[in-house]
Queue: 4 jobs
Job 1
Amino acid sequence: MSTASGDPTTGTADFSAAPLADASPPEEWESGQDANTGQRTTETNGDEQRPTAGELTAEAAASPQPGAALPAYRPTRGRYRGSSGGYELDLRVDVDSVPGGPKVLRKVSGDFFSTGGATKAYFGSFIVHAPTVSWTAAKVVIKGVAAYTWQTTHTIVRVTVPRSRANQRPGAATVEFLRPPGHLGATYVCPHISPYFRTIEWEQDSVTGAVPFLSYDTGSLPQPANSPARVLTVPRAYAEAGIELLVSGTANVIANSQNGWTNTELHAAMETNFSLWRNAPQWKLWLLVASRYEGTAGVRGIMFDAADAFQRQGCAVFYDLVQGADPESQRAMLRTYVHELGHSFNLLHSWQKNLAQPPAPLGGNNGFADLSWMNYAQNYQPLNGNGGAAAYWGAFPFQFTDNEQIHLRHGFYRNVIMGANAFGTGAADIEPELFDEPLTDESGLRLGLRADKQGFTFGEPVVVELKLETTDLRGRSTHSHLHPDDELVNIAIRQPSGRTVLYRPLLRRCVDQDQTIRLDTHRPAIYSSAYIGYGRDGHYFEQPGTYQLRAAYLASDGSRIVSPVLRLNVRHPVSQTDTQLAELMMGEEQGKILALRGSDSPSLRAGNDALQEIIDRHGTHPFAVYARLAKGLNFEHEFKSLSPDKSELTVRPPDPKSGIEQLTQVVKVSEQGKGVDNLTLNLATRRLARAYARQGDLEEANSTLDRLVRHFDTPAFKPYVVDAVRDQVDTTKARLTAEFGS
């Protein structure tokens, strides 16, 4: 094969490298899979995959019986592949419809790969958004100006596809790249390889006792009149978007723990048990059907692989919350599976599209009006009419929006394929205007953003407090998801360099459950504390200087509530010891451990060693309280890990003695106002009480909780805050007595 020239659109056609009859069998033929189950339906011989003798594709099923009229033309759509001049082109043609098939988006797109010897590497992508299409009895010609991921003078793309009948094999597409006004560059002849635009291998495992979702009949419950009743599986739902989801191998059943799954355990489980996983972009993803999520109520699923260099390869759904054999439960389960897998394709929530890079347009009412798999049913709020879950299901056609389908089918390669660009397409840059104050605000809500201290030492974890309150004496109802990890609150950070970035949580979770609260004179505000020093893009406070922060909360009715600007100073280290401690705190692994509130993951061993060094050698330094907090929370909790063959669940039991040793110091220093913020102190104290209860000392556990009430029961705190803490303590006491009492 000839050597690549540097731009795959400019060379002279090399037909020897792109024969009309493909010299090597394509990866898949049209039959590909059963769209309902996702299982392959072809006979294979090595890499070759051809239809079985009795198999018909959905398009060929309309072929006439003997003596009938001539078959209709085969739709011009799907995936084509060819080579020329040291490059391989994966072409996607989306200009013709299949009866009952995916919607036509009228786009042409493609990905280029440079080839040399036995290697292949991604080069770039293009898309023609608005082509002109002409049909004759012999051919279809598609032509338009393309947008590329690189600079080229050959901006015009012309695709010619011979027309064929429904009972004939589709012809090869000839792709020409032209420099205006019409100078021909490279030409590729691309045989048709699939009616799908992309093909993904999906591996699914489940824990003991969890029954994975199979199918849902959309006619079981009322649905829109324009949405035909059909049986939907997860692969079928993606097939309707033009995406082939192939179930890989056998679904494994792995051991379970009744105590639920934490972020760190899910991350470790993926590293150990995703048999298709490797450190490279690939069209492969993993889903674990786990029992429940430990840490936040209402989490139905999570796309947890958002912290390393090869993201979006793993997600989970939580069976305890989504299970049920009735139609409502099956319908919701289908939406949860499709939703979480959608995040692996780099699809954001409906209300977050404008936070991607580059920003995508929001749907109506800040995205809450989207009828999409990527919206929450309870969040649905059209501009006119009633919203909520009932309205969503009454109007939802079980489809992605047009913009989401464009991304799935035609998005640039690295923006879609698992393991390439990070979630949100990988860039943290945002438009500061997204956080401008609204021209009018009649929401009746106010958002506050503050920190316990005016300045932070370089390397010190940055924690902020969010406060949502009502300004309407009559009261307002909204949701209680105030933590930025729940993704209904976003925090923008203007760094000293002038660059504005968005805090993106390390592990994003879908709090897909209605948690409506009433803010009024009895409970005028709610609070949340968030560590925002480290996220999916790494450390956000990497240099001394002045930072400006602003938060935005998306209310239940679609209102966007923006906080005032918070200015934080990160001070320069003043001694050699401060510099050394900053280096110990600012490692990537240390950032992950602090964000995860501790971890036993082998991949974070160096980070744990660094935090232990801070405790051992600098135990009286202010940074030690954060190291003790991460260590103490981790000791107090068990840690689950799976064997590589998925046959054995190893549980490292809680170590309450070590947890007490570390958390006691955290609580003591923080009660004196020299440690963590009050909300984190609340968490640490309740976990300390739990450690005492694990040891069988309920008396000391209750005494610890009583001290927490006394800490807050002062004039420095509002009465409703004290009441909330007292209620929380009473609930914790009852839970500990039920779990550990005799």
Job 2
Amino acid sequence: MDVMGDKATLFETGRFVQPSSREDTDTPDETGEIADEAAEELRQRLAAEAGDVEAMSVLGAMLLRRGDLDGAEPHLRAATAAGDRAAANNLGVLLHQRGYADEAAGWWRIAAVAGSAAAAHALGRHHRERGDEPAAEYWLRQSAEQGHTLGAYALADLLEHRGDAGAEKWLRVAAERGHREAAYRLARALDRKATRDNGGDNGVQVPDEIEQWYRQAAARGHRRAALHLGTILEKRGELKEAGRWYLTSAKDGEARAACALGFLLRDAGDTENAAVWWLRAAQDGDGNAANALGALHAERGETQTAERWYRAAMDAGDVNGAYNLGLLCAEQGRTAQAEQWYRRAAYAGHREAANALAILLLRAGDEAGAEPWFSKAAEAGSVDAAFNLGILHAGRGEEQAALRWYERAAAAGHTEAALQVGMARLRGGDEQEAERHLRCAAGGGSAEAAYRLATVLDARRPPEPAHELGEPVHRRSECEEWYERAASQGHRRAQVRVGMLAAARGDVVEAARWYREAAEAGSRNGAFNLGLLLAREGSEPEAAVWWTRAADAGHGRAALRLALVYARRGELAEGQRWADRAVSLGPESVAERAARLRDALRQELSA
């Protein structure tokens, strides 16, 4: 009878006792549990006293499992002396529990040589605990190759510890036989390998095999596997199932799952229950959950409670706690304390804290102190810091250095940096590169980039073709689409240009709408053009109102138009005043006309 293991002290090593069939195993046979154990023990005892070796072995295993070492030992020794390898195996377990590890190993060796896979596993574990890895590998391999699940897992663990590629094979063997830790570790190994192969891109779809092993381990109660499975499902958008696995893991005590469940609930709008799970995770030492609680209380204006949770996050080893404390102090105007917390986080390697510290120093006029922190943050991967370094160098007139940092930020997707690179390339005459960067910035939501891109495309646009009647045929061009995108985002020059395009195709209402929107936002060109449109439609008094607004903002042609309006009305002095204003504002062609008008009005007034 091959029975091995100890259910109490040796559970972690897999060495626990069970009665079973004549196979080597380390796990209890739950389906073969005897209903009346006392009666079975009596039957085995009577058979053992009659000299039945198998009964001695089974009785010894039963007593060993119950913890009756003194009662079990004589029966196991007797069965072992009669050549029962399961008894030798269990005698080793008994002696190991008594603290006689070397004597236990001797009996395990006897059982292993006799073919007990369970004993080979126990012997391999014994040698590994003693630091004898070659002997450990030999016996664990013997056990694994005989189909012993825990032997396969223990062999995989040994090989993985040594960095041996053969570990994956034995993890797979153990996992296929239902070992949950093996399934989890196999999934983790495959996951790491896939991440390396994809250049660290965690956004890539997780292969089905990896998910399958996480599922197997999670279904068997592995809480970390449930956490990882939840993460995979959440990234895939299957939030309901992800939440179920997070809940399963969290209830089993996995703080990270409780934290993740909190974020899932918050995103669904259930902040109250989110806070419950964050609290549970934070109390278990999860710094991320403590930060989330801090942010929640900060949003509610409960700054003291927020600060307490940020400190708890920091105490849990989460450097974000110090950074968030810095943000909290900065919002309250406690600049000195904000700098202190930013420094603490920045020295710990928090790149955004380094960037925030640099901004704080720059605002205080300490450019020399700010630059190294910008550099440190940028080198650590902070896109904002790279952009800020570009601004810093541009402010000094160091255009090439500024461009290098702008390009670095733009390559990481920074919209404003892409705009700056596009503008620099336009100034340098590299229109192709300029267009590429402007498209990136415009696509990222920059109204200025959309306008600049439209002007580039507009300059290339061929003249409108005419049909047989000589009237232009309007085709909506790409540049118009970009003008309109910029205009819809409030870009005043784009609004004026869209108005001009609408006027050119005869859509007066649309043109007036865009001119008015630009004018009301402060565009003097918009006000001037709106005045022109109104004047053509016969609304000169209203046109004069908009020309006045444009002229007051420095628009020379609007001032000239006002001078002409007042001259026609006979208000010569007012006309002369606006003519003088037009002369001072220009441009040159306007100034010349305004000067002639002014002189004529002066002569008329003096006549």
Job 3
Amino acid sequence: MTAVTDQDHTEHADHAGDTVTEKDQHDTDASVERRAQQRAGAEDAAHARVENDDASGRTDSAEAADNWDDGLIARRVAEGAAAEQAAALEARSHSAQPAAPLAFDGVLRSRLDALRELVGLSRARLDNRTLAEAGRVLDEASARRRLSGQHTVVAIAGATGSGKSQLFNALAGVPISETGVRRPTTAAPIACSWSDGAASLIERLGIPPRLRRRPLQNGDLDAQLSGLVLVDLPDHDSAAVQHREHVDRILALVDAVIWVVDPEKYADAMLHERYLRPMAGHAEVMFVVLNQTDRLPGEATEQVLDDLRRLLDEDGIALGEHGEPGATVLALSALTGDGVGELRELLGQFVTERGAPARRIFADVDAVAVGLWPVYATRRRTGLSEEARDEFAARLADAVGATAAGEAAERAWARNANRACGTPWLRLWRWYQDRTEPATGRLPLRAQADEEATARQRVEHAVRTLADRASAGLPAPWAQAVREAAVRGSQGLPEALDELAARAGLPPGRPPRPGWWPAAVLAQAAMTLLQVVGGLWLLGQIIGFMAPNLGVPVLLMVAGIVGGPLIEWSCRMAAKGPARRYGTEAERRLREAAAGCGRARVLDPVAAELLRYREVREQYGKVAGVGATAGR
């Protein structure tokens, strides 16, 4: 084993940590001495690295030969063979002690299943942009579930100059992340794991092996924070776009986050509007740390802390006070170490519970439910009432002329009754008139172009009215789907109604004859016979063929002349009821045919869309749960 002096260590730090000592497999006395020396010069070495990074350019990267350093200082391993060897060592460590995957409870599992079903039912109705966040949450939940449930990934985020890297080093017990006056100092996220088996979690964050660290080896601290994976993020307000992209990407993947603010920028609008306010639902997996309290005199720390709590409350972030779940807010100084122990203790309790990953996913599902509220939820009753259905059928019946057809059928039946039961002389006169008029029977519907145009307009108006009523109160995407279904069904509906009216209208020929018509016909024949007999009798008396006797023939003629119209009037009165029933039946038949056509072409597709909405609304209710209700 090669001994390392203070001078050697400083030289290695000046070259950005490109030269790494070989790690011995046993903790010998020389290793203990080297650790003490390195701790003493670690901070100077970190400043030296900051000043010499640009000049050195990591020229000695070929000397790197191991994945982890000796557990005392930050390792700086270059890419290439050394990085591959580091990944292999970590993979072997991970495979040697495989961590149990994350387990979800029944409530979270059912909500994720409901969200997956909801996305599947909605793909044909909602655009991919609307469902993108839901799909991302499902993918990330599935990926996180396959990984270790014994580790908790916590990110440290903050603005430029807030001291988050300094806090990161204080928690690790050794300078790992660079600190200094140059901004931005942290250019890429750095991970520090307190136990083995977290390689897959760190790989999920996209952090390469050369940026993975080990904390100071301390039995008490290691036991207290066992299972913690701490990630130091770049500045969220960095001028470099790629730094902000790193922050946004990793914040969506970690289990919890520590927001580090300082007395100068704790009320920064960018922090509150871009990060804290949108993440208000994630309060249970959030720490808000007021750093640099050593710069505040007297009671100023409590005043700033109270104002910070006020701002967080305005952001909608629940504060974990008085035993209630919510964000943890505390003040500390990473420079002097004041309050760091309290944060370490809280982190230890937080990690030991092993509940942060599930709570993070639970909060993600809540956020998705709140975001999807406008496209799934409604505050009013939706659907088609029986009144709306009946009105639609009535409008179609009016468009097809069902009422007019019924009236025409009634008149046709009465006309045929009059013809059958009228006097022969009146029937002869009507026969003469019918020679110049259309034959009775089939009703000539849609005979003129203006009538066809009017009927088409009535059909279109009926469909629009139905679509408006069916879509009333629905979220915009589902209302649009209902209207589109109604419009598709209305295509060709006027023509279909025309054909249907021709088939279901009046049957060809004369209406059926009731049983009393033959008796009326015989009675009319008898009256006619009396008139003929009386007339011939009178004629015979006039020409002297018969003896004069005016009483009997006149009486016969008067009886025939008066009886014929009387029988016709009686038959007309008797025909009103059957004629009305005949017309009503014809109208009913046409109305039912028009309603059936409208139901098949318009009502059924609209009802199918409403049924689909009810299904997704039910699934959304399962996804929303209590969290979405609180968010609303």
Job 4
Amino acid sequence: MSAEPDGPEDRLRRFATIWSRAVFPVTSTSSTRPEFEEQLLPLARRLSEALRARAFDADAARAVGAALVGAHCTDPEALSRSLDCVDAYLVLYCGEGGDQEDLRARSARLQHAMAAGYAQALRERTLAEQEAISAAALRAQGVVAQALHASEARFRAVFEGAAIGIGIADLSGNILQVNGALVRMFGGSEQSVRGRNVMDWTHPEDAPQVWKLYDELVRGEREHYHVEKAFYRPDGTVLWTNLTVSLLRDADGEPQYQLALMEDTTERRLLNLRLRYEATHDALTGLPNRTLFFERLEKALTAGAGQRFGLCYLDLDGFKTINDSLGHAAGDRLLVEVADRLQSCATAPGEMVARLGGDEFVALTTGTDTEREVDELAARIMNALVAPIMVEGRELTVRGSIGIVEGPAGERSPAEVLRSADITMYRAKSAGGNRFELADPEADARAITRHGLTTALPTALDRGEFFIEYQPLVHLGDGSVRGAEALVRWLHPQHGILGPDRFIPLAEHTGLIVPLGRWVLEQSVRQAREWRDRHTDAGPLRINVNLSPCQLTHPGLVQDTVDILERAGVTPDVLCLEVTESALIGADDDLLKPLRRLAEMGVDIALDDFGTGYSNLANLRRLPVSVLKLDRSFTQSMQQFPADPVDLKIVEGIVSLAHSLNLAVTVEGVETGSQAEQLRILGCDTAQGWYYARPGPPDRLHELALVDATG
């Protein structure tokens, strides 16, 4: 029998065990290692919860870092080992089932927050020690003034044994005494430190207020101050410290000495810089990542008057094919080479390149003349991608689509700029790729509206926002109403009534066309039943319902249709399903099988938009259709008199061919009486168009049918 798989608690316990084994040797604690592991277990659980939380919680990771200090893990090596464990094992043992790339990115952010919490807690602990030492020093100096030998010995013990650097200087800045810890920080001898003046230790990165605070202290206007300060060591390296300087007064309260307490933060600072770099740079290519790019973009967009920006948003064409055929390792090598080439394109001041993720890159340029510069930058990028790239002995050709956004600072947010660039890039890709396009506000607005409609579609059907209008089908011989075509509309809360051309392509793209089409079919057949029940004199009115290519391939098409007809209590001959000619070009037997089954049941199949799909007319014999619906492009010229004789011959030929195959002919877009009469003479069977009636509510068709039946 195989062993049961580890549960989440087991994996969490394993992570805590690894963590405790790594950190325990450098921890100043009287606990045993198993006891120390029990202390780390709740911290591991908190990191696991933060890793998998819906929203990122930096406070949880900072609390874990602070708790390490509370557990006596104050050796810098303890933090380094803890971060290494989190980096290597947190996602492995606590990230099961999640997106690994996202989890690793979140793990890096947790490490950064954890280090920040550790540093803050250690700083607070150090400050507490510093206050104790400062108080002891004050007491010791008072005792010195009273020449009390015992207190001098006590002060000397504190002074020499302290883990932080301590120095005493007079009010002129001359250093009088230093302890061993301070000498070790500077890496020289006591003589190289003593005898110097505080003013010698200026550093280019000193904040402006550092020396202002110093002047206030030596004048007696301030009792102490705390700053972060850098010092040069004798060997030229930089020492970073948390520096606290206090004023020592004599028995009469007059300023006499200054006492400096220094904590070496060089390693911690380097660690923070490393974590910051990892958090803001792409691990694969070394380019700035999305986080750093947004920081730079926001800075560019908030620049002063007269400043502009230009952004190139690049997506590689066909990158998925490379990943699928050669593997992700080859795809990664390709991305590294592309990143190197892009980096060489953006070397001027104010330019940068970043990787947003996957095969998406951005290039940013800033200044006062970005209208010209961004075009040149895009051209350099396209040229850089021309040369093939060698990957695993294969020569790969790289193509890319670029969306360009350019404009003045201060008008748009980073999110709006990136959205516009993304939309423009996809417009370039839709135009064939391997090109760049400039952002167009009108195209952006259309794309944003289209996206809004796409996201609203799934709930629109549930909210009952769709309704159906019906356009009558009229017999050209006697003018009687024989049926109607069902045309779905969307009553959108913001955009009003939308025609099918605005949302049917979106429904097909999202797959919602299947439930929407089923709803239209059900409502239309039910309406046909109501017409039959209300008005029997005009005979049964046929309902025409459009069938999309998606519905045509759906396995439930036949059964859904049968169920709808049976529930409505109507015969199949009341229904005509319209399929566009382009959907049936080159259709095989499997695609035609459901249409054949429906036709055998008695459902009429109409070939819609006939004449626009360039199909082989010989294919009509194998298609299970009973009606040809002639596209309006063939009959538009008939609105004028006299009609184009060529168009007349074409329509006459199509009608003759259809009738020879026992197919009825319906014409769309009839708008004038002369057009209707001409089509009647040519032998067309039925027609629809504004000449008879515009699409409208079902009662309108009932009234038309009633008028026709009563004469």
